[in-house]
């Protein structure tokens, strides 16, 4: 069954700043619909009064990664799209994947070592081997 | 910040030069010498590094194929077969394994690779019998071809 990797979304913005207008519109109009459509994500809306840092949408994932996206001077629709994008991501880092495959047990028959195809007499150590 | 008249344009100065420089230097941090510190030298080195990395994508395929072939050759020589004989006989026995998979088998599944080498050897012997025997002996078992329709 699908488990959504996004744990919580924190909307940090100031109620008076000019660039947080999109965030305020989002909170007024689309935040409730978004929260209803994604019932397993917790949406926190925390306005900090007065001039403060830029409005930011902080996403925390189940594996602990925290991703912050600036929402300054964005419209409400763009914030909705951004939030859905964050909700569909997992918390893995966004870097180039070196290999598209991974195994924990790569070898079933035992990995090759220089003595695999040699006669096993080479591996025997002990008093039996000493010449009489 | 597009300013229309020339006089005003001259007076506005660049304020985020630091970040524009850092955008380039962050790709040069692991270089040697002054190229990882000085912007003028780093720009040229970073551009060449990017060009080389795009061109190397084609060569990576060639390089990896050569690596696989070396490994398969070493593994088949351990079992007494040379690489061209091994590959050609596997293909004739309708075993369509590519070199990547064969190299991985040789490393991680040595017994499977030994059995593949034995199969190739048997097919080789049957090929010799069919070519030299000329005639009344029945065809080899491993030389039979399966037709998929």
TrEMBL record, chain A:
Bilayer-spanning residue ranges: none
GO molecular function: structural constituent of ribosome
Domain Ribosomal protein/NADH dehydrogenase: 15-90
Main location: mitochondrion
GO cellular component: mitochondrial large ribosomal subunit
Gene3D superfamilies hit by this protein: Glutaredoxin
One of the protein's GO biological processes: mitochondrial translation
Name of the protein in its database record: Large ribosomal subunit protein mL43
Species name: Alaudala cheleensis (Asian short-toed lark)
Gene that this sequence comes from: Mrpl43
TrEMBL record, chain B:
UniProt signal peptide: none
Keyword line: Ribonucleoprotein, Ribosomal protein
Keyword rRNA-binding recorded: no
One cellular component (GO) term of this entry: ribonucleoprotein complex
GO biological process: translation
InterPro entries for the chain: Ribosomal_bL20, Ribosomal_protein_bL20_C
Gene Ontology MF: a single term: structural constituent of ribosome
This protein's record includes keyword Cell membrane: no
PANTHER family (alphabetical): 39S RIBOSOMAL PROTEIN L20 (PTHR10986)
Family named by the database record: Belongs to the bacterial ribosomal protein bL20 family.
Name of the protein this chain belongs to: Large ribosomal subunit protein bL20m
Provenance organism: Alaudala cheleensis
